[in-house]
Amino acid sequence: MSRVGGEAIVLGFETSCDETGVGLVRGRTLLADALATSVAEHERFGGVVPEIASRAHLEAMVPTVHRALADAGVRASDVDAVAVTAGPGLTGALLVGLAAAKAYALALDRPLYGVNHLAAHVAVDELQHGKLAEPSMALLVSGGHSSLLLVPDLAHEVQSLGRTIDDAAGEAFDKVARVLGLPFPGGPPIDRAAGEGDPAAIDFPRGLTGPRDAPYDFSFSGLKTAVARWVEARQRAGEPVPVADVAASFQEAVADVLTRKAVRACRDSGVDHLVLGGGVAANSRLRALAEERCAAAGIVLRVPSPRLCTDNGAMVAALGSRLVEAGVAPSALDVGADSSLPIDVVTR
Ligand code: KG4
Ligand code: ZN
Fold first, then answer.
1. Ligand 1 lining (C-beta closer than 6 Å)
2. Ligand 2 center to residue 23 CA distance, Å?
């Protein structure tokens, strides 16, 4: 493998949901992070429509690759390895990224790494804060996942400690936003509205926090229903809905449960580093509360900038780079998509 300055240039493809991401990294240096999104096309459906996402990936793919190469100032022939999300995600959407990545790997005669999307959310932090402390705990919260992961060795071993048993955290934000008449995706408008509200105004339920509940699993469906019932009761009574207070109280319940469980997992496992990732990690209250509780517990908190928390190609390139560095064997060129790829499979 030809390497510039001893560090491989890795081209990464991400198409598991509605973002077409193409990233380039050299070692742990971010070179380019080109993104196209079909989010506006899903807005009127209130959620991502798989067929629309796949078609949008297909249309956006080649221009996005060209933009990434131009932004990085590298030629395709400079690329040393190709990485692509193989799962979990929407099958049709994953297939578009896999086809593109295979085409580049084959045409350039470079190794291909089919990687796990969740592990890539963890890896992206290395582009901003240097090599991950191992073991680290990772809390990944997005529209598609809510997971608590123990990461003894990002290139080889990632363990699932807990996950949502119903809605993902971001899904709850999206559904509550709908109830409040706020646009999709719901996270950013709820975050903004909450800034004007009182987080203690309404005492919404904290799911799975009882003494006999699974300590690291999450449940947001009861919270979502509680918010909807509360808002409906107001509307039935002909009273105005205090949107800012509902948003702030809902957001507080989510941030409280997520940080409480993440800190507990760190304590129980004797791990003193926590990484946040996924779109919900862009939430201002989650970031602030995580900061506060980690500081109190002596845990070092690492959170990538919001731009890198949401789905992007750089995170896939970052994990690919880590795999190259660790000497992990590449995937076969016929590696397939796995919509429910388990987290303990870092590369397949
Ligand atoms: O990681 P991501 O871009 O895509 C998935 O893999 O799902 O996450 C998107 C999710 C959406 O549900 C969106 O509402 C949520 O992240 N989100 C936020 C914020 N920004 C995005 N949730 C809470 N607060 C935010 N500021
Ligand atoms: Zn994601």
1. 17, 142-144, 170, 173-174, 185-188, 191, 278-280, 282-283, 310-311
2. 15
CA–CA distance, 328 with 157 (Å, rounded to integer): 12
Q: How far apart are CA 98 and CA 307, in angstroms?
A: 23
248 CA → ligand 1 middle, Å: 16
Strands of 81-87's sheet in order across? 29-37, 19-26, 9-14, 81-87, 112-116
Say how many Å lie between the CA of residue 279 and the centre of ligand 1: 3
Q: Alpha helix locations (H) across the chain? A: 39-42, 50-72, 91-108, 117-123, 126-129, 169-179, 187-194, 221-236, 243-269, 284-297, 306-309, 313-326
- Render pLDDT for 33-51 as a digit per residue (tens, 0 to 9): 999 998 888 888 877 889 8
The number of the ligand nearest the C-alpha atom of 168 reads 1
Cβ neighbour number for residue 242 with a 10 Å cutoff: 17
Query: What are the phi and psi torsion angles at 13 (to 5°)?
Result: -120, 130
Per-residue pLDDT reduced to its tens digit, 56-82 = 999 999 999 999 999 999 999 999 999
Superfamily of structural domain 136-306 = ATPase, nucleotide binding domain (3.30.420.40)
Residue 152: which H helix or E strand, with range? strand 146-153
Architecture in CATH for domain 9-124+312-325: 2-Layer Sandwich (3.30)
Q: What is the DSSP letter of 44?
A: G
Residues 322, 346: Cα–Cα separation, whole Å: 11
